[in-house]
Amino acid sequence: MLSVSLREVRHEFQPSHKLAVDDEWLDDLYLRIDDLCAITSEYLEPAQVDQLRETCHFAAEAHAGIYRKSGEPYIFHPLAVARILSNVRFDHETLQAAILHDVIEDTHYNKEQLSHRFGPEVADLVDGVSKLTQIQFNSKLEAQAENFRKMFLAMANDLRVIMIKLADRLHNMRTLGAMRPKSRRRIARETLEIFAPIAGRLGMNHLRQELENLGFNHLYPLRFRILQDAVRKMSGNRREIVGQLETCIQTRLNDEGIQARVMGRSKHLWGIYRKMRRKHLPFKEVHDVYAVRVIVESVDMCYRALGVMHNLYKPIMGRFKDYIAIPKANGYQSLHTVLFGPNGVPIEVQIRTEDMHIMAEVGVAAHWRYKSGGDNQGNHAQQRAREWLRKLLDMQRRAGNPVEFLESVKVDLFPDEIYVFTPRGEIVELPRGATAVDFAYAIHSDVGNTCVGAKVDRRLVPLRTPLVTGQSVEVIITPTARPNPAWLNFVITAKARSSIRHYLKHLQREEAILLGKRMLEKALAGYIGGLNELPGGRIQALVQELGLSGFDDLLADIGLGNRVAALFVKRLLPDENEKALSDTSAQPLLIKGTEGTVVGFGKCCRPLPGDAIIGYLNAGRGIVIHRENCKNVASYKKSPDKWIEVEWEQCIGADFTAELRLDVTNRRGVLATIAAAISATDTNIETINTSERDGNTTTVHLLLDVRDRSHLARVIRQLRTVPEVLRLARRG
């Protein structure tokens, strides 16, 4: 029963002078409020329903005179958002916040006034949603990404904030037809890329599917209509098959004494379309458009029902998944199997309990459904959601900028899970295609940073090996190891990618500070003994003048090539020691090849110890070393301020890459002969590529690891002894 009748509402809610009294929409307003209260009265206390009605009246007055682009009064929108949430049985504070979610943004009321009237909990929720509504997706990418970052921070404070936002987006998608076509496509794309996956990640399956179908309809309207027509045309035949299947399954389960509900369901259009694109299938080859869902009383009954299904129809090998024993990240649990149904048509069957069914439909929202019942099912889903958000916040702290964070989140929102085991038997969930490095970072960032190898099912494998469900993975670590930048080419989890980038950026800064110190001391040579002789006050004054947080920031900028050391000499030295800046480069900077990422070597000429070299300051990368006769040096002469005198150190222990080009006779075994000749000089071949010039001659490109120019000369002399080598030259 309604706590207040429509007649009493009319008497109670007399619109103020600000409301345009229009009987047509006013009657509609009363009916919508009554409808909302009727739904909520099934699970809320009468006093809470009365509070909800009062909130509706307040919001109606606050939004008086404001209309949506469709022409309807604005108040209809927050009422619709609250109705969406009431169908999931949210608590009355969330429903009140949904009704008021645009009040702070669009009216003269502030958070304090709402807190005084409706309580601090409701006011905090409204304030959280108000901050999210400021997201403008037609802004530049970085601004958009920053707003998404704020959205995930708000989610971490109270999950109900994002629930209201998702319901708000759903109603906006239902009424998107009033927008211009360009705006419809933009909003639909955002919905498919971000909001629908968030709903899926939180386990709100019914909301996700409607968001996806609406987004599909507005982003690809022609494809949507064609696919909709195709499903409608074939539904007659297939629905008859599924109907027979339902009856047959229900009868067999009854015969076995298993109480169950059997329901046929159709795959939503966006799911069909995505499968067609992913597997390059025509519509007629998509067999799982329809499926059967079996709801039973207990977990034990799920497995008994599975046995009945496999006795009734033959299962398709490799298509069984046990999400009860190993739930999905969002808490989803069910048994999935694919059977050869009537006439050989593959039919997917999902078997679950009633509680699992509720969890599959509403996800973390089950927490509020179960709040008064003492069930911990919803709490379990919330814990999983909060764990996911905690990982996102950790990524946000490691990300260098909002765009990088958004890309990491997108990767995390589209997982196709695999499940692997630690040596102790603990389950680790990873996206499909994850490697041993992804596994290491999933265990802990320090494990990932120090891993050097991995064993899969007790066998050593390369770190880039993709993992598959059921494998046992052991990571081999060395405390002195550090991440390899090449890992970024194959890791796929957001945590691994962000952790590697964070470590490398931190490492690069340390290397840049050391190089910047060397460059500044070189620039000071001839004036004073070193940086330690500079007056501390002058350093501090320069740092403040440049707006930096410390002297290390200045050194890092110099090391990365963002600032020129010579330009700071005059500003750092006492007046009596000043000289012409042209004298500051008397002593070259010594290069040893172990400076790290801030000293690079040009791939155009690949300099080696023993070559005459010059350095070029490249902003953001540090110093790039080139040979003096490199063809690119001529273009650098246009910027003499970016040159830096460099020389090789006397003792160098690093290896360098040299490139050779060989023209060889095209005969069997020639590559083996060349490799043997190179191996005889204690040289490692990094890569080898060939291209056939004509039927008799092949060009071979070699990348070799050598110590210096003399080492390369020995390799060249050895290769000249091979009869098949016609011509040989060093590249660059």
**Cα gyration radius (Å):** 34 Å
* Helical residue percent band: 40-55%
| Mean pLDDT over the residues | 78
Poorly predicted parts: 1-21, 133-140, 370-378, 578-585
Q: Alpha-carbon distance between the termini?
A: 86 Å
Taken together, the total number of domains comes to 6
- Biggest sheet character: 5 strands, mixed
Any descriptors?
732 residues; alpha+beta; Hypothetical protein af1432; Beta Polymerase, domain 2; 5-stranded mixed beta sheet; 28 helices; 20 strands; 49% helix; globular; disordered N terminus
Can you tell me about this structure?
- The structure is a single chain.
- It contains 28 helices and 20 strands.
- The chain has 732 residues and is an alpha+beta fold.
- The chain has six domains: 1-134, Hypothetical protein af1432; 138-219 and 374-412, no CATH class; 231-369, Beta Polymerase, domain 2, CATH 3.30.460; 434-492, Roll (Ubiquitin-like (UB roll)); 502-648, no CATH class; 656-730, Alpha-Beta Plaits (2-Layer Sandwich), CATH 3.30.70.
- The strands form six sheets. It has a five-stranded mixed sheet with strand order 1-2-5-4-3. Strands 12-14-13-15 form a four-stranded mixed sheet, with no helix packed on it. Strands 18-19-17-20 form a four-stranded antiparallel sheet, covered by helices on one side.
- α9 runs antiparallel to α18 and α19 packs antiparallel against α22 (494-524).
What is the topology?
Elements: H1 6-12, H2 23-40, H3 46-62, H4 76-86, H5 92-99, H6 103-106, H7 111-118, H8 120-132, H9 141-157, H10 159-174, H11 181-201, H12 205-219, H13 221-255, E1 260-266, H14 269-279, E2 290-296, H15 299-312, E3 321-322, E4 335-340, E5 346-353, H16 354-362, H17 366-369, H18 377-398, H19 402-413, E6 417-421, E7 427-431, H20 436-443, H21 445-450, E8 451-456, E9 459-461, E10 473-477, H22 494-524, H23 536-545, H24 551-559, H25 566-572, E11 589-591, E12 599-601, E13 613-618, E14 622-627, H26 633-636, E15 643-644, E16 646-648, E17 656-665, H27 670-679, E18 684-692, E19 697-706, H28 709-720, E20 725-730
